[in-house]
């Protein structure tokens, strides 16, 4: 229930922050970030390591922002 309530009140801001404010990305870059995050999460799962897919995805987005030199460090 807490997850639903939290998403109801701040979900839009979180989606906007991760989706647009961390780094400006092209659709192909978004696909790359998703693929990298899924690969890391699957590998960690196979190794029995507990990981957060959210943290992995934010790291992938920030990594692409670093490569493209448009990461928003103030937001991070």
TrEMBL record:
Keywords: Membrane, Transmembrane, Transmembrane helix, Transport
GO molecular function, one term: phosphate transmembrane transporter activity
Chief site of localization: membrane
Coiled-coil spans in chain: none
Membrane topology: Multi-pass membrane protein
Pfam families given in the database record: PHO4
Subcellular location(s) of the protein: Membrane
Name of the molecule in the record: Phosphate permease
Gene Ontology terms: biological process: phosphate ion transmembrane transport
GO cellular component: membrane
Organism field: Neisseria arctica
Transmembrane segments: 35-67
